[in-house]
Amino acid sequence: MKLSDFDYELPKELIAQHPANRRDESRLLVLDRSGGGIRETHFANFPRFLSEGDILVVNETRVIPARIFGRKRGGAAIEVLLVRRIANRQWIALLRPSKRVRAGEIVFVGEHGHELLVSGAVGPGEWQVSLPPGLDERDFIERHGHVPLPPYIKRGDDPEDRDRYQTIFAQRDGSVAAPTAGLHFTEEILLDLKRRGVAIVPVTLHVGPGTFRPLANETVEENALEPEHVLVKKAHWDTIASARRSGRRLVSVGTTTTRTIEAFAAGRVGGREEREIDGEIYVSGTTDLFIFPGYEFRAVDAILTNLHLPRSSLLLLVSAFADRERILAAYRWAIGRKFRFYSYGDAMFIR
Q: Lowest-pLDDT range, 9-18, 32-41, 59-68?
């Protein structure tokens, strides 16, 4: 299977640079998997497409302000993107420009010159860094970090992004990119869903920087995804796992949620373990599950998602769920109607 089969032309003006005025003002493309029928509405109407007994699964990861700007002793600018925490004040990070950095160097952050130590390289472009001693770790990141907007948003972050590049479900720090299908929800929509008898169940997948990286190989099957941390409350997984047995429809909000559900269902969670958090038992681990056409879905019945980049793993996932030609035809239809694409763009419900 060739990656070029998942390409399409998108006018640059359709790449959303800012969110809609209100979360639920986004447009919603509704695609029927069976017949390929397409209709358009607004996201505020999304609850009308769900029924009593449906289970809506959401990703409750929280985006951290992971992008930190500093300078070397000689004044050269350095960008630090925190990727994952490995211990107190110890992080794996991407540094830019990486060629200008050496192990043992100090990056000075903020007007007071807080010292961030580059301990050493741990992989291609990845470094272990130590956050400044004597400062509260979370406070330092919140105070000096910037929202890690995707590279196709051609502007710096602003105060609005602190709220709008975060879902209302966000509970657990750890992502460097938002699970964007969840950005459209409001508290009013959640109340509407609950009134309709829809159960809302959270899971967690912390989105890593791999979400921004293009797939490297033209042959789809030769690509791999970076492992990402997943976490599900055991009681919630029992609800998800029993959905098919009880005849309830499982609706996944986003590709990250879909991969989490399918990874657990397929036994593709590495280092799986049970642990107690706040008196509740959780199941955690990592997954590198790569879903592309030919994959047999084990749990998910419907997917709410955004409109994705050409040649991306996210486009491959929705193509696996609803057929490549059907998805690309829906994308052409959306382009013709000037839908907004990517993270801050409009939504698509595949049912």
A: 32-41
- Contacts within 8 Å (CB) and 24+ apart, 319-324: 319/6, 319/292, 319/293, 320/291, 320/292, 320/293, 320/294, 320/295, 321/33, 321/258, 321/297, 321/350, 322/31, 322/33, 322/350, 323/33, 323/36, 323/293, 324/5, 324/6, 324/293
The pLDDT tens digits of the residues spanning 95-117 come to 998 777 899 999 999 999 999 99
- What's the pLDDT tens digit per position in 221-239? 999 999 999 999 999 999 9
pLDDT per residue as tens digits for the range 79-99 = 999 999 999 999 999 999 877
Which run of H or E residues covers position 86? strand 77-87
pLDDT (0 to 100) of residue 125 = 80
CB 78 within 8 A of CB 72: yes
> Residue 188 CB: number of other CB atoms within 10 A?
12
Helix (H) or strand (E) holding 293: none
Model pTM above 0.85: yes
- Is the four-CA dihedral 332, 189, 186, 228 of positive or negative sign? negative
d(CA 225, CA 90): 24
Q: What residues pair up with 347 in beta bridges, in sequence order? A: 28, 306
Q: Domains plus CATH for the chain? A: 3-63+161-350 (3.40.1780.10), 67-146 (2.40.10.240)
Residues 80, 114: Cα–Cα separation, whole Å:
14
